Amino acid sequence: MAGEAIQVLTGSVMDSAQAATQIAASSQEQLVGVDQVAVAMDSIKLASSQNVASAQQLEIAARNLSELGQRLKQMVERYQV
Question: What is the spatial distance between Cα 50 and Cα 55, in angstroms, rounded to a whole number?
Fold first, then answer.
């Protein structure tokens, strides 16, 4: 009877150890996944910053082009016969 109880207990301990190993492996995989998400978020942040900078440059270029167009229009109006 005592031998049987020890065998059952040994089986339970082995099952628990195996479950703990699986939990540790799953936790490691989750950590890798979280790290990948963090890297992706940093990439998105960088791309967003670059898009904002590009949009600002486009706005400045459009404004400059508009001003040049107005100047050209004024110059043409002066020299009309």
Answer: 9
